[in-house]
Amino acid sequence: MAERDFLRWAIGRSGARGTAFAVMTLMVILEDFTAFAVGCDGPNGRVACCPECGRNGVPLEEPDGIFYVHTQASEVLSDGMLTEPRDCCRVNRAAG
Predict the structure, then answer these.
(1) CA 66, CA 92: separation in Å to the nearest integer?
(2) For residues 69 and 1, what is the distance between their CA atoms, to the nearest angstrom?
(3) Can you give the pTM of this predicted structure?
């Protein structure tokens, strides 16, 4: 199905008038931090060696733990950018 045919079908099914802006993905970027050298500056921090699996990744501190992001996908939306980790390891904090 061609893109314009899909848009016509989607608009017809919803009964909406006008144009459908958020029907299809426009741009997705996949970033692979395993190809970066340790110590390089990535978009979200410095690349380091993951203590869980030994692959390169960017450490990300969250309230529920530390994650090493190996690959992430960024999608450009009409109101901003959505960035999600696609491959990551959770590192348990050492008790102490």
Answers:
(1) 7
(2) 36
(3) 0.65
Closest CA to 44 of 73, 77, 78: 73
C-alpha 40/C-alpha 1 separation (Å) is 43
| Residue pLDDT, tens place only, 13-70 | 444 454 545 555 468 888 899 999 999 987 778 999 999 999 999 999 888 889 999 9
Q: Residue 56: beta bridge partners?
A: 49
Task: Pick left, alpha or beta for residue 21 (phi over 0 → left; psi -120 to 50 → alpha; otherwise beta).
Answer: alpha
Q: Residues 69, 60: contact at Cβ < 8 Å? A: yes
Q: Any alpha helices (H) in the chain, and if so which ranges?
A: 3-14
Domain range list for the chain: 24-91
In this predicted structure, what is the pLDDT of residue 54?
A: 93
